[in-house]
Amino acid sequence: MREEKPLNIYGQTFESRLLIGSALYPSPHIMQEAICASQSQIVTVSLRRQNSVSAGEDFWQLIKDTGLTVLPNTAGCHSVKEAVTLAKMCKEVFATDWIKLELIGDEYNLQPDPVALLEATEILLQDGFKVLPYCTDDLVLCQRLAALGCEVLMPWGAPIGTGKGLLNPYNLAMIRQRMPDTTLIVDAGLGVPSHACQALEMGYDAVLLNSAIAGAGCPVKMASAFNHAVQAGRAAYIAQAMPEKDVAAPSTPTMGMPFWHQN
Amino acid sequence: MKITFNGQLTETSSQDLQALVTEMGAKEPFAVALNGTFVPRTQCSSTHLTDGDSIELLSPIQGG
């Protein structure tokens, strides 16, 4: 059996291994209820032009009322300068040095730009940020990000909002195996609780998701389902799964079997 | 002078960022960037505007 440890994000520990997004809910009330049902302790937020959306001020009060730790993102940024500027603006508004660094390289599948991500990460780490980079499931990229000083990495399961689950479990498993001391969070692309469970079973420390809950027929019920899935996956990882075999092995004892091969 | 405020071409008499933020009726909380560079709130009063500047004033919103 493995040793149980709480989720560790830059020295801060959490019981919940489910990070939840605050976007796309049918209503602010449902968002609040879903966040509560998820039992998440970390919620993601962002910044946009004031008055460009109606929710702004009221939204921020709702988030503050949850009492959760806030993780701002740089969603939608396409250049290092944009991402660094938005990160600094987030730091001032949300009074946190955490930043979920998103730097999009391809508009079609919203794939992170690995080259720009490394550059922005280095700038922000040197500026005192605690960077949580949203990255592809590339082992070498993850190693480079960790070498820069990232204690937390967030490789994708699948492109944002697709709900496809873990498209490349081999890559994700290899990252986990090669980087045992880095906090790893699967971010994006999950669709159903079994996807989250699978990530936790593999030894990932947590998952971050939004659309799978907010886009469900009943976001509150789905938030609860993801909470249970994450707990089940973590418990399975701690318990350590049986070795997989290529041939059948009987579970019922064969000793004392009547009529054994009498024909 | 003519500036671009949150993507909109705007005429303003404000000479610095703090005056502009007040003129635009900005509601807390927010952060400001000038020509793509973050300007801390403590430096808004001492940051002078010039014709053609682009200002972004951002506030909290939902995020995933």
From TrEMBL, chain A:
GO terms for cellular component: cytoplasm. Keywords: Cytoplasm, Schiff base, Thiamine biosynthesis, Transferase. InterPro entries: Aldolase_TIM (IPR013785), Thiazole_synthase_ThiG (IPR033983), ThiG (IPR008867). 1-deoxy-D-xylulose 5-phosphate binds at G161, A188, G189, N210, S211. It catalyses: [ThiS sulfur-carrier protein]-C-terminal-Gly-aminoethanethioate + 2-iminoacetate + 1-deoxy-D-xylulose 5-phosphate = [ThiS sulfur-carrier protein]-C-terminal Gly-Gly + 2-[(2R,5Z)-2-carboxy-4-methylthiazol-5(2H)-ylidene]ethyl phosphate + 2 H2O + H(+). The keyword Cytoplasm applies. It is found in: Cytoplasm. Its EC number is 2.8.1.10. Residues 9-253 form the Thiazole synthase ThiG domain. Pathway: Cofactor biosynthesis; thiamine diphosphate biosynthesis. Gene3D superfamilies: Aldolase class I (3.20.20.70). Its main location: cytoplasm. One of its GO terms (molecular function) is thiazole synthase activity. It comes from the Bacteria. Catalyzes the rearrangement of 1-deoxy-D-xylulose 5-phosphate (DXP) to produce the thiazole phosphate moiety of thiamine. Sulfur is provided by the thiocarboxylate moiety of the carrier protein ThiS. In vitro, sulfur can be provided by H(2)S. PANTHER family: THIAZOLE SYNTHASE. Homotetramer. Forms heterodimers with either ThiH or ThiS. Belongs to the ThiG family. This is Thiazole synthase. It comes from Pseudoalteromonas amylolytica. The gene is thiG.
UniProtKB/TrEMBL annotation, chain B:
InterPro entries: Beta-grasp_dom_sf (IPR012675), Mopterin_synth/thiamin_S_b (IPR016155), Thi_S (IPR010035), ThiS/MoaD-like (IPR003749). SUPFAM superfamilies: MoaD/ThiS. NCBIfam families: thiS. This is Thiamine biosynthesis protein ThiS. The lineage of its organism: Bacteria, Pseudomonadati, Pseudomonadota, Gammaproteobacteria, Alteromonadales.
